[in-house]
Write a structure and sequence with these properties.
This protein is of the alpha+beta class. 30% of the residues lie in helices and 27% in strands. It has eleven helices and twelve strands.
């Protein structure tokens, strides 16, 4: 809902957002690029408890760090114990695009051995102060959000956010599909066909995906920088994606649908099978109702099957306005995990 006054006037932000005060042998500083391997290692260690089936690829931290919007000097915090070992990290990500909300994403992890010692609370308090500064810098009249994603197993993170006034705003499903089960054929109209994912049409694809998700809860347009980071990631596999192409009367073509896949083999052992993850699937609004999404998905399932993968996974909004949960269920996907977006709105 649009507010009558801009965020700059309705958000009370502190004039400064200093790092937490050192105490109990814990010291704090900003993140540098040289810290990224240690940050990735801590993230994996925490993930054993908080999200055992999800392993963040190492280059995801590089993508954050090198993105146009990332400000390591002001938007990062690292905590170290007396031995100089990294025991916590926090990142404040101000999303570049804002259509329905000005979003600031809060990401933090605390070493399991150092939890319930006030480190997580200190980190969250710093994140809130910095996040409020981002919101107060906006003249937009749309809502402002501080939000954090929490996996079902991350009980201590959920409790911390609950204590600080965050509320569950949206639930998400991770769904899984057994590739040993028959995959249906999905015919398309004569003016439509599927082609391999083509990186040279990247901007067309980004436009389709942004349009396809513009009426989805909390979704903002993907910036060019973030899109490049995704396509350049070591886990992005164009060969397991596809484009839906329409041939126009003048002989030219347009992209009307797209599916992209990531493969993180480090997650195969924790989850117990080889799988690919559908990272995005979208259809342009003017091309809906022709089973394009089903055709793209069935095509990619067969590609995964041919590579010897055992399952396909994807994430979906429980309350998707396009009925995506039903679509995936009819194609054989079942619930594997749940996560929730915790939110403070201004």
């Amino acid at each position: 809902m649009t507010q009558p006054t801009p965020l700059a006037k309705r958000v009370a932000a502190p004039t400064s957002a200093p790092l937490p005060t050192p105490s109990g042998g814990v010291t704090w500083r900003r993140m540098t690029r040289a810290d990224l391997p240690a940050v990735a290692a801590l993230d994996r260690l925490c993930g054993v408890l908080d999200h055992p089936r999800i392993i963040t690829p190492d280059d995801a931290f590089e993508v954050w760090f090198l993105s146009d919007e990332f400000d390591a000097e002001n938007d990062t915090a690292l905590a170290f114990d007396e031995t100089g070992s990294l025991i916590a990290y926090g990142v404040v990500l101000a999303m570049a695009e804002a259509r329905t909300a000005v979003r600031v994403r809060l990401i933090a992890k605390v070493h399991p051995s150092f939890r319930r010692q006030g480190i997580g609370s200190a980190l969250l308090q710093w994140q809130e102060a910095r996040g409020l500064q981002h919101l107060a810098a906006s003249d937009s009249t749309i809502p402002g959000w501080l939000n954090a994603g929490v996996e079902a197993e991350a009980h201590s993170q959920r409790e911390l956010l609950d204590t600080h006034g965050y509320t569950p705003a949206r639930w998400w499903l991770t769904m899984s599909r057994d590739l040993a089960v028959a995959i249906p054929e999905v015919p398309l109209p004569s003016d439509l066909h599927l082609e391999p994912y083509d990186l040279s049409r990247s901007e067309e694809v980004r436009a389709v995906i942004n349009e396809a998700f513009e009426d989805h809860w909390g979704t903002q347009p993907i910036s060019g920088s973030d899109w490049r980071g995704l396509e350049q990631s070591t886990t992005f596999v164009p060969e397991l994606g596809a484009l839906a192409i329409r041939t126009l009367p003048d002989g030219n073509t347009e992209v009307v649908g797209a599916l992209g896949t990531i493969v993180n083999s480090a997650e195969w052992d924790p989850i117990g099978y080889r799988f690919g993850m559908i990272e995005f699937l979208g259809v342009a609004k003017h091309a809906r109702g022709q089973r394009i999404a089903q055709a793209l998905l069935a095509h990619t399932l067969r590609l995964m099957q041919q590579r010897g993968y055992e399952r396909a996974l994807l994430d979906v909004d429980v309350e998707s306005p396009t009925g995506a949960v039903g679509l995936y269920s009819r194609l054989g996907f079942t619930e594997l995990d749940r996560s929730v977006t915790m939110l403070k709105e201004f």
